What does this fold into?
Amino acid sequence: MKLDALWVAFYTIVLREVRRFTRIWPQTLLPPAVTMTLYFIIFGNLIGSRIGEMGGFNYMQFIVPGLIMMAVITNSYANVVSSFFSMKFQRSIEELLVSPVPNWVILAGYVTGGMARGLGIGVIVTALSLAFTQLSIHSLPMVVVTVFLTSALFSLGGFINAMLATKFDDISIVPTFVLTPLTYLGGVFYSIDMLPGFWQGVSMANPILYMVNGFRFGILGVSDVNPFVSLGMILVFIVVLAFIALRMLERGKGIRH
It folds into this structure.
């Protein structure tokens, strides 16, 4: 395919994805905003006032970067897994697969659509957080790079989950039993410096820890891990998942019978 045709294919997939989640905004955009507002009120104001400072900042300021990243992660993932699986379930994905559109364009289109929702929710949650605390950005490039890479990574994860899923129940297993525990144990609500040595080591095996701390460094300038190590880890995960997703598309895993 020529470059302009590739662009049209990519743009069409992305536009479809964006229109899908904006059309049903009461289901896709409103719930995360309400949930994060409750986190700000309960953890930030009510519990945070009793905890005091953490990492040199009041507790509300400390948890805001983690809560923003948590919203980006869950919504990037959810958008792709629900959208692609719905295409599989309705068997409309077959029309895309028999077209001359390369697999990498299909993957890039769905991932970009997931990123659009994840980053959009990130902006909404950031705006809401300003009603509860003041934020000053320590490193804008670090903020932008970390949030974009993290959104891309979990969009890829959602794509793989959608390809492996055989029924609607399968698309909720990973978010419930993997993403949620890893997110809560990824330093969103605490610094791993508070943990005993053994559990600090265990926490270092949690990939979400690097994303949360990389973003927190960009916002506050504090981190439990080296921010450049965080970026390196995210890039490695992206390369691995992108390779897996492309191989699965080439083999028609879960979509060809």
